[in-house]
Structures are given as C-alpha cells and as structure tokens.
C-alpha cells in the first residue's frame, strides 16, 4: 500500500487549529466560538424576535389605555417591560456583543491560517508543476535526439 509522504510545503488542516495557548484561553476561545455560532443561528433570531414582540402589547397600551383588557396583565406589567429592556439593552449589548466579537476573531484567525497554508501549498504545487513541465520538455528532447541517432 502506498503511504503518502509528508511535505514541508503541504500543511494538513488539522495542524492549523493547534496554536499553543493556555488552558483558560483555549476554553474562552471555544466558548466564544460556540456562543457566536449559537447566536448566529436562526433559532436565536426567532428567540430575539419573540422577546421583542413580548414588549409590543405594553407599547400599544401606552398609546391607547382602553385596549388594556385585550392583553394578559403579566405581558403589560412594568416588571416584564423592565426585564425585556434589561435583556436587550444590558445583557445583549454589554455581554453578548463582546463575546461574539471574540468568537469572530477566533474564527477569522483560523480562516487566515488556512488561507496562508493554502497559499503556500498552491505556490509549491505550481512551482512543482513548472519543474515537471521543464523535465518533460527535456525528456522529450532527449527522446527526439535518440530517435534521430537511431535512424
């Protein structure tokens, strides 16, 4: 069976995601990437849409207090509005956004290392192909010279 030889110019993608970091930094990066991927999903968009829609009845009641009886009391209560405002203004903006930025930086770093490795590999393969073409041309000339000598 043929065993592939490793080449210094060809880097396997598994080797790109192994930067030397402390355990705490690895944990933080993994958590940030998981949160970034989770928050970047449609399920999070649905959750945030539901969260924002929950405060809509309270706005309607502020505009026209006569429609108060159409909505359950707990939805238009001040405590629910305050909780929704805290979640959207404090938690999402002060906690979740920095975590997402860290996750995006980690993902971008991985993509940059992959692009650099791909560039090195493709440059090596291009140079190798050019060398092979020169060798083939030289072999072709040698074969033609041998044919002419044999005739």
Please describe what this structure looks like.
The protein is mostly helical and 151 residues long. The protein has one domain (23-150). Helix content is 79%, strand content 0%. It has 6 helices and no strands. Helix 2 packs across helix 6 (78-150). The two termini are 42 Å apart. The mean pLDDT is 85.
What is the count of structural domains?
Answer: 1
Number of strands: 0
Which structural class best describes the helix and strand composition?
mainly alpha
Beta-strand percentage range: under 5%
Radius of gyration, CA atoms, in whole angstroms = 31 Å
The span between the termini is 42 Å
Oligomer: single chain
SSE pattern: HHHHHH
Shape: elongated
Give the helix tally: 6
User: Which parts are unreliable, with pLDDT below 50 for 5 consecutive residues or more?
Assistant: none
Biggest sheet details: none
Q: Roughly what percent helix?
A: over 70%
Integer average pLDDT: 85
């Amino acid at each position: 069976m043929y065993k592939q030889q490793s080449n210094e110019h060809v880097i396997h993608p598994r080797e790109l995601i192994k930067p030397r970091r402390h355990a705490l930094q690895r944990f933080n990066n993994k958590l940030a990437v998981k949160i970034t991927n989770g928050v970047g999903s449609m399920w999070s968009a649905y959750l945030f849409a539901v969260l924002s829609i929950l405060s809509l009845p309270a706005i309607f009641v502020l505009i026209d207090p006569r429609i108060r009886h159409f909505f359950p009391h707990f939805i238009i209560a001040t405590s629910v509005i305050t909780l929704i405002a805290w979640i959207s203004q404090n938690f999402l903006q002060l906690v979740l956004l920095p975590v997402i930025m860290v996750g995006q930086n980690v993902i971008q770093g991985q993509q940059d290392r992959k692009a650099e490795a791909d560039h090195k590999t493709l440059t090596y393969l291009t140079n190798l192909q050019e060398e092979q073409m020169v060798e083939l041309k030289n072999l072709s000339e040698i074969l033609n010279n041998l044919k002419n000598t044999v005739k």
